[in-house]
Amino acid sequence: MTKQYFKLESAATTVDSLAEHYRQRNTAAVVFTIDSQTVSGHPPNSVENLIEGAARNNDVLIPFGTVDPLTGDRAVAGVRRQIELGVKGFKFH
User: Fold this and answer.
1) Closest CA to 46 of 78, 72, 73, 17
2) For a Cys staple, 57 with which of 19, 35, 50, 85, CB 3.0–4.6 Å?
3) What is the reported pLDDT for 61?
4) Is the CB of residue 47 less than 8 Å from the CB of residue 35?
């Protein structure tokens, strides 16, 4: 679905390959995972991995954090932790 939506020639399988895609086009992107576990039942991808990858590629990737707002205190702790890790904004689902 992401591949079709963003008209990617090939599916980006790593943060680094996604960064290269945007670097070749001389543009940047906000990157984030989606944490909606209470609704979907699926655990989110590693936001820590995404933040680390964006830090390696900070010329083209801007990391946003994500927490499931329905998890209460866990969401608040997640926001604080992700701010410490260097996110530049948040996406809530």
Assistant:
1) 78
2) 19
3) 97
4) yes
pLDDT per residue as tens digits for the range 36-59: 878 888 887 788 899 999 999 999
Residue 92's CB: how many other CB atoms inside 10 A?
14
DSSP 52-67: HHHHHTTTTEEEEEEE
Strand partners, 64: 89
Instruction: Indicate left, alpha or beta for 92 from its phi (over 0: left) and psi (-120 to 50: alpha).
Output: beta
| Whether residue 92 has pLDDT greater than 90 | no
Across 23-83, the runs of DSSP E, i.e. the strands, are 29-31, 61-67
